[in-house]
Each structure stands twice: as C-alpha cells, then as structure tokens.
Amino acid sequence: MESYGGAGCVDCCREHCRQRTPSMPVSATAPDRRTPPLLQTNRGQTAPRRFDFARRSCRLFIAGSFVIGLILVPCAMSAPTKSSKSPSPTPPRPNVATGTPFWHNPCGTLLTYDGSGGGATGAMISSAVGHDIMMMESESESDSAMRREEDIIHGIVVAAGQALTHAEQFTGAFVVETFHVDVKKNHDHWKGITLEWLEMAKYMPKALDVPLSKSYLATLTFRDVLHAVYVGMQNLAVGLEQVALDQDREMLPYAKYFNETTLKLRTILCEVSMAIYDINETPEPHVSRDIMPIESRNSRDNQSLRDWLILREYMTSLQYVIEAFGYLKSKR
After folding, report:
1. I need a labelling partner for 164 at 20 to 30 A (CA). Which of 157, 171, 180, 208 fits?
2. 3-class SS string, the chain
3. Closest CA to 324 of 168, 203, 169, 199
4. pLDDT recorded at residue 62
5. CA distance 51 to 205
6. Residue/partner pairs of 53-57 with CB below 8 Å, 24 or more apart
7. Does the reported pTM lie above 0.85?
8. How far apart are CA 308 and CA 162, in angstroms?
9. Are the CB atoms for 265 and 314 separated by under 8 Å?
10. Where are the transmembrane segments (predicted)?
11. In angstroms, rounded to a whole number, what is the distance separating the alpha carbons of residues 320 and 9?
12. Pairing state of beta strands 112-113 and 120-121?
C-alpha cells in the first residue's frame, strides 16, 4: 500500500514503512548484566559511591579486628598465677656449730688447732697462761680464795696481751688480701658500721686504737668490769666461732688463725670467770648462740665484711681489757 501525503501505510510491515529512530549503543540503553542493579547509575557510570563506602567499611573492620587482637593476645598469654596449694620453698638450713659452746666451760680442756681443716683437737695449749690455768684447777678452795686481786688482774692482762699480739700478727695480711687496702684505710672506711647483736657499746664501750678517757676510767670498779667483760667476751665468742667455722668449711687461708683466736679468747674467759668466783660473785648466765642472727650466719654476700667487723671488735675488746684492768691495778 502506497503512502499518501508522506504518511506511512497503515499496517504496513515493509521496511520502507517502519519508523526510523536514531540508533544508540547497547551499553547506553540496556543495563549491563555483569553489574548488579544497585551499582548502576542513570549516567552510565560503574564506580558508585555506595560501593566505595562499603569497601572502606570492610577495611576499617579488618583493621579494627587486628588492633583488638594485638591487645587481647598478651593478656591471654600472661603468666598464670601461682596456686595457693603449691608448697612453700624450704628455708635454708642454719649454718650453726653443734655441741656445747666453748665459752660455757672455758676452763675445761683447752684445745689447739692442728691446721688440717677439721677444727680443733684435744691438746693442752702450750703457754704460760695455759699452764697457770691447769695449776689453778688443782688448787684447793682455800688457796684459790687467797689469790690477791693484783694477781687476778695480772693474769687477765697477760692473757689479753698475748691474744692481741696474735691477732695483730695476721690482721694486716687478712685485710690486704680481702679488701686490698691496709688496716687503717679499711678501718676508716667501715668504722661507722657495727654489729648491733654484739652489744659492744653496752659492755666494753671503746673504739679501735682510741684510748679510754680518764673520766671514764675513774668510774670503773673491779667487780663491774669483771662482769661486763665476761658477758661481752662471750658475745664475741659467738661471732668468732662462726667465723672460724666458715673459714674451716670453705678451706680459706686464714682458718688456722681464726681457730687459734677462739683458743686465745677461751683463755681470757677462763681467767675472768675464775676471778668472778674468787671474789665470791656468781657469773651471769651463759650467752646463747641465738644472739647471732641467721642472716649473719648464712649470708655469703657480706661474709668478708662480717668477719672484719667481728675481728675488729675482738681486738678493740682486748685493748679495753688491757686499759681497764691496767688502770684498776694502778689504783691498788
């Protein structure tokens, strides 16, 4: 059918009668099946804002989870707490000598050190003082009562003088090998440190190599000095026994000298105790080993310093005995 006036044929299906429309690219008219509908735009773009927001949210979630994990993992790996049922550690065994302390019976059989590292052996000490003690043990009560105070003082001073000479003979070498300085420098460095359990200021108040003042000497009595020296020397015996024990046990080079020191001290204690009986006095109760703290016995960190302090107080007490009894003798 032909067209009239340029109009198309009615119901004409031929090619020339179809309405012409401008062609458009498929991508501009039909949606891309590979892209989800939510990600399409009206302007033909495929990088939507909602997609960027979701991607950023995912990254933030992953990063946050990683940070939280770093915080929680150390807490989960912390050391477990100790169970209340776990056994407590066994305390260290005290390093204390056994048997009767030598200062409890100072006038018994005197001992000598044989240098074998096994302690003292039962032989009589070969000195004038030791011989005098043996003779005194065989004296009758009447003979003992007749001893004059001058003789008592003389015996104590002689024993203290011999002990001081013995101590001075090895103290210098001991200090140099232990502290690498001489005795004076070592004493000046540590003179402010004391062992309170020795109570030296209470019984024999004196500093090493510092003479007793005349005003102090004037206050002394024979009886009071005897009792004070007897207790103070027993306190020193507790410390020297421990020093000698440690020196023996560890096979240290001055074990022999410290063991001999305990023998010298025992001789002095014997003289003092017999002097107390001679003036019809009763000695104070024996000093116990317990006055020395366990920490001072077992400590290895400050053992050398402890040994020096005990040796220093021992020599100081010997100087005290010589000065105090020498003054009392001069007043007779």
Report:
1. 180
2. CCCCCCCCCCCCCCHHHCCCCCCCCHHHHCCCCCCCHHHCCCCCCCCCHHHHHHHHHHHHHHHHHHHHHHHHHHHHCCCCCCCCCCCCCCCCCCCCCCCCCHHHCCCCCCCEECCCCCCEECCCCCCHHHHHHHHHHCCCHHHHHCCCHHHHHHHHHHHHHHHHHHHHHHHHHHHHHHHCCCHHHHHHHHCCCCCHHHCHHHHCCCCCCCCCCHHHHCCCCHHHHHHHHHHHHHHHHHHHHHHHHHHHHCCCCCHHHHHHHHHHHHHHHHHHHHHHHHCCCCCCCCCCHHHCCHHHHHCCCCHHHHHHHHHHHHHHHHHHHHHHHHHHHHCC
3. 203
4. 62
5. 94
6. none
7. no
8. 20
9. yes
10. 60-79
11. 150
12. antiparallel
Q: Consecutive 10-residue runs of the chain (332 residues): their mean pLDDT?
A: 46 50 46 45 49 60 56 44 46 74 85 48 43 51 61 95 98 97 97 96 97 97 96 98 96 97 97 91 93 92 95 98 96 81
State the virtual CA torsion across 27, 32, 37, 39 in degrees, nearest 10.
-80
**From CA 234, how far away is CA 102, in angstroms rounded?**
9
**Structure-derived torsion over alpha carbons of residues 153, 155, 160, 161, reported in degrees to the nearest 10:** 100
Length of the chain: 332
